[in-house]
Design a protein that fits this description.
The complex is a heterodimer of chains A (about 290) and B (about 425). By secondary structure, chain A is mainly α. Chain A has one domain. Chain A is about 65% helix and about 0% strand. The two termini of chain A are about 25 Å apart. A six-stranded mixed beta sheet of chain B has the order 5-6-7-3-8-9, sandwiched between helices. In chain B, strands 10, 13, 15, 16, 18 and 19 form a six-stranded mixed beta sheet that branches. Chain B has three domains: about 210 residues, P-loop containing nucleotide triphosphate hydrolases (Rossmann fold); about 35 residues, no CATH class; about 140 residues, abc- transporter (atp binding component) like domain (Coagulation Factor XIII, Chain A, domain 1, Distorted Sandwich), CATH 2.70.50. Helix content of chain B is about 25%, strand content about 30%. Chain B has about 425 residues and is of the alpha/beta class. Chain B has eleven helices and 19 strands. The chains are: A mainly alpha (about 290), B alpha/beta (about 425). At the A-B interface, β1 and α3 of A face β1, α3, β4 and α4 of B.
Chain lengths: ~290, ~425
Amino acid sequence: MAEPAELTAEDLSEWSTVITPARGWFDLRLAQVWEYRDLIYLFFRRDFVASYKQTILGPFWFFAQPVMTTLVFWVIFGRIGKIVTKGVPQFLFFMAGIILWNFFSSCLIRTATTFTANSGLFGKVYFPRLTVPLSVVLTNLATFGFQFVMFLAFFAVAWWLGVPVHPNWRLIILPVLLLEMAALAIGVGCIVAALTVRYRDFAVIIQFGVQLWMYASCVVFPLALIEPKTRIWFILNPMVPIIESFRYAFIGYGVIQLWELVLSMGITLVLFFGGIVMFSRVERTHLDSI
Amino acid sequence: MAAIIRVENLSKRYRLGVINRRMLYEDLQSRWARWRGQPDPNARIGERAATAHGELWALKDINFEVHQGEVLGVIGHNGSGKSTLLKILSQITAPTTGRALIKGNVASLLEVGTGFHPELTGRDNVFLNGVILGMRREDVARNFDEIVAFSGVESFIDTPVKRYSSGMRVRLAFAVAAHLDPEILIIDEVLAVGDQSFQQKCLGKISEVARGGRTVLFVSHNAAAVENLCSRGIVLEHGQMIFSGTQTEAIQFYSKREDRIEIADLAERKDRSGTGEVRVTGMHFRDAKGEALSTAFAGQMLEIHIDFKNLSGQSFPNLVATLHVRTHFDAPVFVQQNRLTGDSFGALPEHGTLVCRLPRLPLPASVYRLGITLTSESRGGKVLDSLRHATDLPVETGDFFGTGNLPAVQSGVCLVDAEWRLESETAVARAGLS
């Protein structure tokens, strides 16, 4: 089959859109994602408005879910399992882990199912597909906002009752922690989304994989319980330094080191860019393999 | 005039059933072997031949240009590659080889109401849909009142769309699309939805866009619409462009081509749907004397014989046979069905023939397409066998009215019997008096 001649730079400036079989690995067209920022906002609005329509208790579920999970964890891991939280009030310990994990896991799963959940829409109209994961992060950020306020309320009550908590200057890194979690969820989610297009196995793996990952992420136990020998394996999981740093900032006690947090950020960055590259590789062909 | 879309050697290949043939494990194994320069342990013997067999070139070496202000009609039957072409130009999927160059912003309407969310209000959906189609939020806001007025659903604009009737939903969606204002508009089958007046409104809007100097790419089964709207036409068949010219030439070429389609043995045809428990194995025509016809004449008694085979061992006492008659442009002319006439077939034998007798064939000279569908009413209307274009019925000029006169062929798609008389004032008055 004859191939058309190479385009010169002059040609490229003349045509506003050039449609070719393959794009370069790093031709990510992020500027276009920015152009579609209105769409990110409207997807966010749609998901937020639609998620609790036709439920009786509506936004109440934002709060009920983490409180109930915290209670269950408290009873099972705190009382029955007797996990020692090293001076940290158990209820706050579990709740902090749960709201962070909720944010992360929900971003991750919804990003990972981007192509399968939106194939109808993607088959009919073009827009940068990355707008979907970005709007997912916004939606979950809003949910997290509510849950975080709830956490602050519990925290304030505990403080007022004289429970030994020591919020400290480290609280200033909270926005960075959130950003890192979002980047990690998008990165891993995009990798899984790209793999799912070819291997449907990953759609199943992600569902229970996220659950297993939680048990390796210091949600139900503190890093301080881990032996020094195996500690490095936990540190390689970027969620461990994030959750531990969050608790450290609020409670004033923790064993996490700064370099461990920096390492997790490095790992996150690699996964984030790797994920976006893989995602934009498949976004133009994923419909062919349904 | 400068080309605004240039398509060069564009091809698209689909691999059939190959994509998910493998497990991840095997893929990794193959990669590892290739990386070490060893033969692939998972390669099948004669792999090349096997993949060549499992490929489908939905488009092959397409070349054309569209100039500023042209309205290009893309014609072809199902599976000819029309939709694939539009999907590539809309950037929904990537080509396999070749390329397409586009100047200016493109809006593609492959569906009306893409991305509508039932829980959101009409207002929210207007914004969401507009932005999905490539508008900025402030563009939608500026045109909002106009969009709502065009749709005619003003009083329900703050009601969730799930409470809309389907007609209201389509009108609102089209109102958004009508205000896109792109330099290039790509439209596919949008006209297949909605009622007649809505379709007219769509066509009106499209011709308005075209007259405004915008470039339009238009895909439709509706040959009349292509003829009215387009200035040029291309014809696709099996992924190849087999004709390019003015819209009228393209339609003529296409309809001639269509007529030549060989009607293979009906029993062997693959383009059918249904459970297959009962199968149509042949269709032929007979006149009043029971003699086989290859061509019918307008006005004559015609019997359409539908041979079938009943492979299920069941008797299907409530079999419904529906006969669709369409023009060679695929526009419906009429439908006949044994339920309409109140006839029933009784228990179905293992094989036999269903006969539909038309006492006076009401069709002017042309070639018509016959479609046949067999459904079982006792099974909730389940389709047993259906062929959309089972065979052609060629009709020659005949003495329908018994006067030797016939209307001009283009003046209508059917012949209707009638009586004419004059009622003068005096006659009416006299009737009133008596």
